[in-house]
Amino acid sequence: MSKKIYLSPSNQNGNTYATGGTNEMAQCDKIAAAAAKALKRCGFNVMVAKSGTLMQTRCPESDKFGADIHMPIHTNAFNGKYTGGTRVFCLNSNGRKAAEAVKSALGAISPGKDDSVSYKTDLYEINVPKALTVYVECEFHDTVTGSDWIRKNTVAIGEAICKGMCNYFDVKYKTDSAGSDSSKAGSDKAFRRYIVRITSSNGVNIRKGPGTNYDVNGAVPKGGAYTIVDEKSGAGAAKWGKLKSGAGWIALDYTEKIR
């Protein structure tokens, strides 16, 4: 029988982001939608809380659904200067394995490095649901780096959450082939190479393929100029570019075309 996961995206629309004129609820709704799509693709039974509803409504709904995992999805904030990475909370040691699985998958792509799992006994959505709660804080939205990353990577965050659940339940993760399929029509046409400069202050990861679902194969620093010899769509960015060196692919969202 398929495992049931209840997704509870933040309803905190008063928590504004450092960039983009958006807020925590709007972005977490997007993350939850992406996670639901990925989880369903991998065989999970998923229910997503209606946007903006209260946790006092969601917890009984999760119980009625018969959830195996109750997952609140939030983004974090501190002092506007700290991009702290992925934080995952659970009630006690019973939830640690599941929390660690999500932390490992999401922490691998979030820009902050202080990823952690900790026990929380004072949060309503950890104490009340009958299901095991994995409470996810997806990076810090009150810094420019964190805000930009979250806004540009809601699909990649959802995919990472799915990977974590697949690892925890020992379910095979199935990639979304739609992006690669959509690029096949133009793959036989001659591609005109161009050069980009890296604009992200943290640099950009090099991936073995066009998407955050591929392994990291290195990194390139801010300010570096690189020749792009091919383009494809894929998870985690609007477009990916293949490096002339053959090292792999970079997310073109964090670059500017210079010639």
TrEMBL record:
GO terms for molecular function: N-acetylmuramoyl-L-alanine amidase activity. InterPro entries: MurNAc-LAA_cat (IPR002508), SH3-like_bac-type (IPR003646). It comes from Ruminococcus bromii. Keywords: Cell wall biogenesis/degradation, Hydrolase. This is N-acetylmuramoyl-L-alanine amidase. Transmembrane segments: none annotated. It comes from the Bacteria. Gene3D superfamilies: SH3 Domains, Zn-dependent exopeptidases. Pfam families: Amidase_3, SH3_3. Residues 194-259 form the SH3b domain.
